[in-house]
Amino acid sequence: MSHWIVWPSVFILGTIIGSFLTVCVHRVPKGQSVVAPRSACPHCGRQICWYDNVPLLSFIWLLGRCRSCHVGIPPRYPIIELTNGLGYLLVVWRFGLTWSTLVYVGLVSVFLVVAWIDWDHKIIPDVITFPGIVVGFLCASFLLPTGWGNSLVGILVGGGFLLALAWVSPFLFGKEGIGGGDIKFLAMVGAFLGWQQAILTLMVGSVVGAVVGIVLLATKILQKGQYIPFGPYLALGGFIAVVWGTELWHWYFHGLL
After folding, report:
1. Terminal Cα distance for the chain, rounded
2. What is the average pLDDT across 122-140?
3. Contact 140/150 with Cβ under 8 angstroms?
4. Distances in Å between the alpha carbon of 225 and those of 85, 99, 139?
5. What are phi and psi of 230, to 5 degrees?
6. In this structure, are residues 107 and 194 in contact, taking their beta carbons and an 8 Å threshold?
7. pLDDT tens track for 32-81
C-alpha cells in the first residue's frame, strides 16, 4: 500500500481515537460511561454537533470556543488528539502494519489517558490497569514477541519494584512515595512488554520526573514537599519503551559491559 495513503490514514485514525480519549479522560475518573450520552460543552451543557467534533479542525475553525456559549475550549482536547495521531505514526513507522502494531497503538492510547487522568486527579484508575494486566498477558502470549513467560516476569518485576519502593518510602522519607496506581500501571507495562521494558520504563520515568521536579522547584512553580504525579512520567517511559525499548536496553547494558 502506498505511503501516501498509509501515513495520512494512520494519523487521521489516531486523531479520531484521540478525540474519544478526551472523553475517557473526562469521564473515567467520575465513573461515567464513555459511550453515552453524547459529548456536550462542560460549561453550557449543549450537545456538540458532529461537525463541531472533527479532530483538530473543529478547534481551529471555532477559534477554540464553544459555538453556543463562546466559552474557551481547553487546549488539552487538540493536544490529546494531535499527540495520539503522532504516536500512531511513530509506532507504524517503527513496526509497520502488523498485529503487534495494533496492540502497540492501543497501548499508546492507554498511556495517554493514564497520563492526563493522573495529572488532573492524582489517580490511575483500577478500571484501566487491572484489565490492562490481563489483556497485556494475553497479547504477550499470542500476538507480541514478548512471550507469556517474559510477560509474567514483567508483571512481577514491574509491580514488585514499585511495591518495594512504596514499602520502604515511609521509613526512608517519612511519607508515602509511590501510589498503588503507579504499581499496577508498571505491572501492566510489564505484562505487555516484559520485565526489561518495565525496568526501562521506570528508569526513564524516574529520570524525566526528577528533572522536571527540579526545574519546577527552581522556578518556584512547585513548592517543596508538594506532590507530583508519577503516572505521566511512567507513561512517557512506557511509550519510549514501546518504540525504542529494545535498542535502548541493549545500548545501555552493552555500555556497562
Report:
1. 42
2. 96
3. yes
4. 36, 44, 40
5. -90, -20
6. no
7. 999 888 888 878 878 888 888 899 999 999 888 988 888 888 899 999 99
Q: Is the full-model pTM beyond 0.85? A: yes
Q: Tell me the C-alpha distance between 83 and 113, whole Å.
A: 11
Spell out the residues 6+ positions from residue 238 whose beta carbon is closer than 8 angstroms to its own.
107, 111, 189, 193, 197, 201, 205
Query: 31: which 3 cell numbers?
Result: 465513573
Rounded-to-integer distance, Cα 25 and Cα 125, Å = 11
Q: How far apart are CA 24 and CA 135, in angstroms?
A: 18
* Alpha-carbon gap, residue 203 to 255, rounded angstroms: 16
How sure is the predictor about 170, in pLDDT bands with cuts at 50, 70 and 90? Answer: low
Whether the CB-CB separation of 247 and 241 falls below 8 Å is answered with no
